[in-house]
Structure formats: structure tokens, C-alpha cells
Amino acid sequence: MSYDLIVIGSGPGGYVCAIRAAQLGLKTAIVEKRKTYGGTCLNIGCIPSKALLHASEMFEEVAHGLGKLGVSVGKPKLDLPAMMKHKDDTVGANVQGVAFLLKKNKVDGFIGTGSIPAAGKVEVTAEDGAKQVLETKNIVIATGSDVAQLPGVTIDEQVVVSSTGALELPKVPGKLIVVGAGVIGLELGSVWRRLGAEVTVVEFLDRILPGLDLETCKQFQRLLEKQGVKFQLGAKVSSVENTGKGAKVTIEPAAGGAASTLDADVVLVAIGRRPYTQGLGLEALGVALERGQIVIDSHFATNVPGVYAIGDVVRGPMLAHKAEDEGIAIAEILAGQHGHVNYEVIPGVVYTSPEIACVGATEEDLKARGVAYKAGKFPFTANGRARAANHTDGFVKVLADATTDRVLGVHILGHGAGEMIAEAAVLMEFGGSSEDLARTCHAHPTMSEAVKEAALAVEKRAIHI
Ligand code: FAD
Ligand code: NAI
């Protein structure tokens, strides 16, 4: 069998690429080494983590939130196996959905590890060792990423866990130490804190969520502390001794100084992810890599003709929707169209409570680039719907160019921020101004009125503050 396109890896980058290519008439196959399609995101990432985040948020809402609304239901009882079943069922439905979509679009699926013996050829090695070689005009590598290891620390997924182990702990740990105050650490730390764990987050830098808007993160950290999460910032974990029943964690100030130790039942290592290229045969093929990432040009082409790469395995944010958009763009390019991704407008969401959502530049970015900007801010305490729902934490911040008024960045800390950010992304995609946002009619009473008010605040004319 000869194909127009073979995609290696069926995460959000790979499966979306394969479906779009098939829609455009390319004879397409996909190779996946896992037993199920959907990649990190659907199997061990976005989807299971959001199932647990939602369920644990409901648990906390019943424990501490409903009483204030006059709903008295008594102390909630945790049924962890049922919560885990909800997560597993959610994953199952999603990965089966992807298998259905691939079939519906007539994409041939091969379960096995893909490697590239030469341009135009993909070898698939099944679990039992059986090999077959497929011929193709083009190859898209979408093999994603894997957990970054802490030097000298062995992840056994029982006591010392990565995100994968943290998604399936058999019981709530008494004490959980999270290494890294990034997205995984704060999301999964929140899950287990809500379910009863004492959570301490140890972060190398002097701030949480590096790269996100600093003011937003500072307020967010205060909210997490109010919820009971402890932080040790400017500190690095230098060793983790697995005692079998738990762990002794040695922590040193990042700037040097005396070490201290903390006991933990479980340690979550969440210090980032690394591009995954193992077993593809890229070295022999001569594909250029830089810091582990596959090097591509602006059209996703590697230095080897006919071989392309997208998603976590290439530069840019490691986000599912970024991988998806790249998958669509390369499929369209291979079909002779003009696929394109606007890297200036990729939203990011931290699915904690409250959520953080952002798109575009932070104030720190704009200052570093010397761009003159105006900022408008509006707090949810002044929003009627937020008050009615008892979700008054946080604010919306709109950053607009001082001269042109074009919106350059929007940052939201608040309940439902991940949904609200979409209108900012659409606005920015169309090159909209804060005036455009301020003059767009927003339904009342909604949390998203705070977005409009923040846009009004850019010219100091917010109504409700
Ligand atoms: P992946 O999803 O990693 O898929 C790559 C696939 O390739 C895998 O299935 C792998 O088995 C397969 N593969 C690798 N090598 C081979 C080979 N040689 N042959 C065959 N198959 C191979 N992002 C968000 O945007 N939102 C979130 O809420 C979010 N939550 C996350 C939560 C967690 C706990 C984690 C770990 C990640 C989360 N992410 C989230 C990040 C997101 O999962 C990734 O950005 C996304 O999955 C990248 O997609 P991808 O297609 O590049 O690769
Ligand atoms: P991350 O890059 O977000 O955060 C890692 C943190 O660990 C950083 O703050 C870093 O300074 C810190 N760190 C590094 N080494 C350390 C050390 N030795 N000691 C203490 N701290 C240390 O990585 P994370 O959270 O593992 O997530 C990986 C990727 O997955 C991210 O790129 C993210 O985009 C993606 N993801 C996205 C989600 C979302 O969109 N909601 C959810 C989960 C993951």
C-alpha cells in the first residue's frame, strides 16, 4: 500500500492532521504505538486531568461552597474509585471517539512503533515484534513529548510520581510535595489538596507559572495559599529518598545555602516535558534536532525532504490546541493550500479554581520589547453575575497598544476564565482594538461583561467601578 501521507503519533497534532488530510483527499495512514489513539492529551493529559479537576472541584463546592448559597447537604464523602472511574470512562469515550473519526474519514490505522528507515518509508513494529514497511509521499512526525526527569530521582509512579501516576493514586496522600509550580504541578496539586492532601509546592524560581502575566500569578498564588497550598519559592529539590512508605525530600535554596528536608507520602515531579523522538531513527535519517526538538521551517518541513513535524516535538508552547492547529496547517499545505498558524494568538488556560486564561503578550513581554501600552482592569467583585454565583475572585486585564489601540494581550483570573478567553482570541485574530471590544454588546448578567468593562477601563471609562 502506498500513501500520500503517513502521520506518526495520534495525539491532538497527529489525529487532527490525519483527519484534515483525508478530508482534503489525501490517502492517509496513522501509526500509534499506544493501544489507543489520542496521545498524551486524551490518555494521560488534558482529558483525565480535567475529569479529576472537575470532580474534585464539585467535592470542594459541596464541602465549602454550597452552604453559603443556602444549600445544606452535610459533609461530602469521597468515593475515590468512583471518581477514578468517571475519569477512566471520560478517557475511554474520548479515545473511542478518535478511533471512530479516523475510520469515518477512511484513515488507515496501524498500532505499532513507527520509524523512518528512509524518506518515503515508515516501518511499523507491532508489540509482538512483527514488522511491515509502508510507502508514502510525505511523513508528518507528531510523536509529542514525555516527562522531564529530575536528575538523580527515580520516578516509580507509586511514591515518586509524574503526572501519569498523579492521575491514578489509589488513595489520597497525607502529604504531597509537588516539584515545580508550573501548570501540571498547580492543576494536579489542586486536585489532591481538594480531596484532603496537605500540599507543598517547591519551585526553583521566585514566582509561580513562569511566562504568564506576573500580576495575575501573584494574585493567583495568594488565592491558592488561602485554599491551603503551601509554597517554597526560590528553592530546588536536590534529592528524593524513597523510603518505600514515603519519601524524604531535600530542598536547597536556589541561591545557595543550608538544605532542609520535608517528609512526604507522595512526591509529584512536574518540572516540564521534553520532546519525544526516541526510536524514530532520526539520527540515521539525518533529521536536525536542537535541544531535543525537531528543527522545522515556517512550513513545518524538516531538513529532510518529505519529512515534516508538528506539536510538542517542535518549538512553541506544548499545548494540545497548538498541536491541532499545526496539524491542520500542514495537512492543508500538503494538499496544495496555504495552511498557517498565528503563534501570536494561542490561548493558554490553567484549569485550577479560579482559572487563569491568557492570550497574547504579558505586561512583562511588552516592557521587554519596549512597546508602549495601555492597561484596563476590571475585578469580578464588581460583576453582578460573579456575585450571584459567589465567584468574585480575580479580574480581567486588557492590554492595548498605546498608539493604535490594537489589543495585544488579555489575562483573566476567575471562574470560567478558560471559556471567556475565546472572545479575546477571536478579537485579536481579527486585529481588533479595545474600542471594538468595549463597543461589543455583552449579555447581562454574565461574567464576560467583565471583559467588556476591562476594555472600557483601557480608556478609564468603565461603568461599574
Ligand atoms: P502527544 O499528545 O504527546 O501524542 C504523541 C503520540 O505519539 C503518543 O500517543 C505516543 O504514544 C505516540 N508516539 C510516540 N512515538 C511514536 C512512534 N515512534 N511510533 C508511533 N507512535 C508514537 N495541553 C492543553 O492544551 N490543555 C490541557 O489542559 C493540557 N493538560 C495536560 C495535562 C497533563 C497531565 C499533561 C501531561 C499534558 C497536558 N497538556 C495540555 C499538554 C498536551 O497533552 C500536549 O501539548 C499535547 O498532547 C501534544 O500533542 P502532540 O500531538 O504533539 O503529542
Ligand atoms: P512547566 O514548564 O509548566 O513548569 C515546570 C516548573 O518547574 C517551572 O516553573 C520550573 O521553573 C520548575 N522547575 C524546573 N526544575 C525545577 C527543580 N529542579 N526544582 C523545582 N522547580 C523546578 O511544566 P509542567 O507543569 O511539567 O507541564 C509541562 C507542559 O505540559 C507545559 O509546557 C504545559 O504547557 C503542558 N500542560 C498544559 C496544561 C494546560 O494547558 N492546562 C496542563 C498541564 C500541562
TrEMBL record:
Cited Gene3D superfamilies: 3.30.390.30, FAD/NAD(P)-binding domain
Q: Name one GO biological process term.
A: 2-oxoglutarate metabolic process
So where does FAD get bound?
50, 114, 143-145, 312, 318-321
Query: What residues make up the catalytic site?
Result: 444 (proton acceptor)
One Gene Ontology term, aspect cellular component = cytoplasm
GO MF terms on file? dihydrolipoyl dehydrogenase (NADH) activity; flavin adenine dinucleotide binding
Q: Per its record, how is this protein called by name?
A: Dihydrolipoyl dehydrogenase
